[in-house]
């Protein structure tokens, strides 16, 4: 069964609209309706409701180019002291993700790469905290997939292809110039802002915004990410699965698992447990099937599954 307190899932039609946004965060109601076989007014109402009440957020996202070198933290905390530690971690700009385990005694967090302060957190500050009983930190060596790659499995392949905009080869990852940086920054809070709204925020001409925005999207220098509570999609189980994989099978296992519909993040890391996948699944039975069927035949020698009880900080949600 899903964890207690799971909200009612959204209707399938609205889930399909969300999946259309995952393909193209700036898709119009008319385009989504034509591909999904729905009425444009129905799609417009769904978009207005989902985006208006906060059920769904569409955020502009920069391509990942610095994920390697981030640290995956696992912090064991005395019961009754978890709130103080999560609050302190959540206040840091270099920690974009914090989860608390269902058992209530472990924090999982991502620490972005950087200099001194991050190292001091791991080596000095957390270990010296009386509420913390242990800290482990694995460095991310390779990202097979992350949340921007995840797609809700409610569309056909043809629908997904039709909704996904064509893009050219990824642009060379040089720094954005001033106008492009201003456009990307404006869209990080709302990836569906109109060109007119972006122009008003940046002081750029609307025609300039349209031209540069099209180039940013085509060159994949600006992505869109849909943020939604997975429980509203019928996913009552949120879990992180840590695995030990021999080096000669690590890349193949990571790539294969990254393509699984349940996986919204797959990372190769340092340490004995060198592959971590984050999964959203319907219930405990689905998790059991994932562990016993999808992980077999991949030379995995050991697994550890951590159920997430509460997402404290995630993109758009903290």
From TrEMBL:
Keyword Metal-binding recorded: no
Domain HTH asnC-type: 176-216
Taxonomy, superkingdom: Bacteria
GO molecular function, one term: sequence-specific DNA binding
Keyword DNA-binding: yes
One cellular-component annotation, GO: cytosol
Keywords: DNA-binding, Transcription, Transcription regulation
Span of domain Transcription regulator AsnC/Lrp ligand binding: 241-308
Family matches, as Pfam families: AsnC_trans_reg, HTH_AsnC-type
SUPFAM superfamilies referenced in this protein's UniProt entry, alphabetically: Dimeric alpha+beta barrel, Winged helix' DNA-binding domain
Any one GO BP annotation for this protein: response to amino acid
Name the UniProt record assigns to this protein: Lrp/AsnC family transcriptional regulator
Organism: Streptomyces liangshanensis
């Amino acid at each position: 069964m899903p964890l207690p307190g799971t909200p009612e899932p959204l209707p399938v039609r609205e889930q399909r609209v969300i999946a259309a946004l995952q393909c193209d965060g700036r898709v119009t109601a008319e385009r989504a309706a034509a591909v999904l076989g729905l009425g444009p007014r129905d799609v417009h109402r769904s978009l207005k409701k989902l985006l208006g009440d906060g059920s769904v957020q569409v955020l502009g996202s920069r391509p990942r180019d610095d994920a390697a070198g981030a640290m995956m933290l696992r912090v064991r905390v005395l019961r009754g002291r978890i709130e103080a530690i999560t609050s302190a971690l959540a206040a840091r700009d270099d920690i974009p993700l914090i989860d608390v385990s269902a058992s209530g005694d472990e924090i999982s967090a991502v620490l972005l790469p950087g200099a001194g302060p991050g190292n001091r957190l791991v080596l000095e500050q957390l270990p010296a905290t009386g509420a913390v009983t242990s800290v482990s930190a694995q460095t991310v060596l390779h990202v097979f997939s992350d949340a921007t790659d995840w797609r809700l499995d409610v569309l056909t392949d043809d629908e997904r292809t039709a909704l996904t905009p064509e893009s050219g080869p990824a642009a060379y990852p040089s720094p954005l110039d001033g106008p492009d940086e201003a456009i990307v920054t404006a869209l990080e809070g709302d990836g569906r802002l109109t060109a007119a709204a972006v122009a008003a925020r940046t002081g750029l001409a609307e025609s300039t915004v349209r031209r540069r925005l099209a180039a940013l999207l085509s060159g994949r220098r600006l992505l869109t990410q849909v943020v939604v509570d997975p429980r509203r999609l019928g996913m009552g189980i949120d879990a992180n699965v840590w695995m030990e994989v021999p080096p000669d099978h690590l890349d193949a296992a990571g790539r294969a698992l990254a393509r699984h519909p349940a996986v919204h993040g797959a990372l190769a890391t340092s340490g004995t447990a060198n592959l971590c996948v984050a999964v959203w699944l319907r219930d405990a039975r689905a998790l059991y099937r994932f562990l016993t069927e999808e992980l077999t035949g991949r030379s995995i020698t050991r697994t550890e599954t951590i159920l997430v009880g509460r997402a404290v900080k995630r993109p758009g949600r903290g």
